[in-house]
Amino acid sequence: MAKRKALIERKTAETQIKLELFLDGEGRFKGKTGLGFFDHMLHLLVRHSGFDLAIEVQGDLEVDGHHTVEDLGICLGQALAAALGDKKGINRYGSAWVPMDEALVLTALDLSGRPFFNGQIALPCQQVGSFDTELVEEFWRAFTLHGGVTLHIKQETGKNTHHIIEAIFKSTGRALKEAVTLDPREKAVPSTKGIL
What we know:
The chain is an alpha+beta fold. It has helices at 36-49, 66-84, 135-147, 161-180; strands at 5-11, 15-22, 29-30, 52-59, 93-100, 103-110, 116-120, 127-128, 131-132, 150-157. The strands form three sheets. The chain has a four-stranded mixed sheet with strand order 1-2-4-3. It has a four-stranded mixed sheet with strand order 5-6-10-7, with helices on one face. Strands 8-9 form a two-stranded antiparallel sheet. Helix 1 runs parallel beside helix 4 (161-180) and helix 2 packs parallel to helix 3 (135-147).
């Protein structure tokens, strides 16, 4: 089986990003964005997805974190699409409920090739540390658009903003793990259309 991996490089006037993704990894994360809380969330995402992710990022953090977070979402989505290739044999769908103390989040996704993001998320605080929490949705929106993912994230409960966001990244990681897993019974693309 060919290795399911991708290398994406993106250079703009606002960010410079090099991202390497390996789908059949060991949950290892390497690199820094300059946003400590966001790095922590990326580490959780790959730990629970089983992906290996290495990043090199230079962003205009003197402005704020928006461009860095959004552009990393773009690159991760592009890398996922490239690493999946023709998507033959994958489960395609994934879902996971994850509790984080008082917070409970459901993620359900489809590697459909049709980008759609539905985030039913209510974060009590506008910042965690120096991280603007509105960027959580910006990251996932960029990821879905460039990865061709249908992604629904539903926050069922939660009062602590850190806990809610952590549950979001963990549940999405676990849903991705399920969706990219190869089904030994599936020899073709899992769609009646014959293409995803």
